[in-house]
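Tokens for chain A. Residues wanted.
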């Protein structure tokens, strides 16, 4: 890099990026703690798996329902104020869950938690994309997705340390949401308010503007949730004990965390939309090799890579979104991503489970590979359409 280029490069907003990163870390920790906590508590109450799964679906349903409101609320209140209110609301709702200890009340409360946390998801991604200089956006968004993954992984670890009894896990979750509030109040002056651009961009517009990115988000969510939910069932068919499958899932999550930053650095040199296709292709090949390697030592590096590329689809979609959109369009795009993530998370595990029920355990890798291949085909088609329209 020449001295002139270094002088003209805009300074990196380190304080704002560090604050948003800290907010995302504690927020992801709270979310990563809540899912297994609710599951363990409902199991102790003797509830069947179907009811536990239905309760878990309430949070992504709340995200889907609230996402269309995020751009409108952001324009009215400003992004920092909206995020602070939502973090406080999430803390109150989490406290209500611990106080009531009632399964039926949890349905409504988990739905409302989804409503409250969705703006935090959307705005944190918007801030990271907006604050990151274009030349360094890949590495920053790669680091962002890695930290989110690490935060989610830290939730179960925290639960392992404090247990599920009493108020201890709820106090940690409430404290994490309140920590978000404090951090946001400190860094609010450095954050974009997102109120300057008053031009509304409806979420439905992104079906025409970026359909391949929306599909990529849904596929990434369906892929991740299906694997986390059903890989233990797949391994059990080969006689792998639960602790062995837990170790394999840990390796998969580790790949998700470790490789997102390298993927982000690659996105600064190559087009993110092309890397998205590579991630989808590697994921498809990886899951198709699963029946071959599941009973060998090669399954460990295989799942490490598949975990990284499966989530890498979403990382590349985020970077491409930031490269193409700004202002209110970026907020609307991230809100649309939240909707598609919720849809993928809800549809993926039941669809994969149904395939396993109909065609045996190999239905899982078959469905996962089919999703990735469908994404590749559609994204390649959209690329041809874009080039034709630009000609």
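Reply:
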């Amino acid at each position: 890099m020449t001295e002139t280029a270094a002088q003209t490069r805009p300074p990196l907003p380190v304080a704002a990026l560090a604050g948003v990163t800290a907010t995302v870390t504690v927020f992801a920790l709270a979310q990563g703690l809540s899912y297994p906590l609710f599951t363990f508590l409902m199991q102790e109450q003797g509830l069947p798996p179907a009811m536990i799964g239905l309760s878990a679906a309430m949070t992504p349903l709340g995200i889907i329902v609230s996402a269309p409101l995020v751009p409108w609320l952001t324009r009215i209140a400003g992004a920092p104020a909206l995020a602070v209110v939502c973090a406080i609301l999430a803390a109150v709702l989490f406290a209500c869950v611990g106080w009531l200890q009632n399964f039926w009340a949890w349905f409504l409360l988990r739905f409302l938690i989804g409503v409250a946390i969705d703006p935090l998801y959307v705005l944190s991604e918007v801030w990271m994309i907006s604050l990151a200089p274009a030349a360094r956006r890949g590495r920053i968004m790669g680091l962002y997705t890695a930290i989110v993954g690490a935060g989610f992984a830290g939730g179960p670890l925290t639960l392992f340390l404090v247990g599920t009894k009493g108020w201890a896990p709820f106090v940690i979750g409430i404290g994490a949401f309140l920590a978000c509030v404090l951090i946001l109040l400190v860094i609010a002056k450095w954050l974009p308010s997102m109120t300057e651009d008053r031009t509304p961009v409806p979420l439905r517009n992104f079906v025409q503007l970026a359909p391949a990115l929306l599909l990529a988000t849904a596929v990434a969510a369906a892929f991740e949730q299906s694997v986390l939910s059903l890989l233990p069932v797949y391994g059990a068919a080969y006689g792998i004990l639960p602790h062995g499958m837990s170790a394999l899932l840990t390796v998969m999550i580790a790949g998700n965390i470790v490789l997102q930053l390298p993927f982000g650095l690659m996105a600064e040199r190559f087009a993110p939309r092309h890397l998205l296709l590579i991630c989808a292709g590697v994921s498809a090949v990886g899951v198709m090799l699963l029946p071959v390697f599941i009973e060998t030592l090669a399954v460990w590096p295989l799942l490490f890579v598949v975990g990284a590329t499966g989530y890498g689809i979403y990382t590349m979609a985020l970077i491409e979104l930031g490269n193409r959109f700004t202002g209110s369009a970026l907020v609307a795009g991230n809100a649309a991503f939240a909707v598609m993530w919720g849809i993928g998370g809800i549809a993926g595990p039941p669809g994969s489970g149904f395939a396993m029920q109909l065609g045996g355990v190999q239905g899982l890798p078959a469905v996962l590979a089919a999703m990735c291949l469908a994404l590749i085909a559609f994204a390649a088609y959209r690329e041809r359409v874009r080039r034709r329209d630009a000609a």
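Residues 1-8 have pLDDT under 50 and may be disordered. Residues 327-359 form the longest helix (33 residues).
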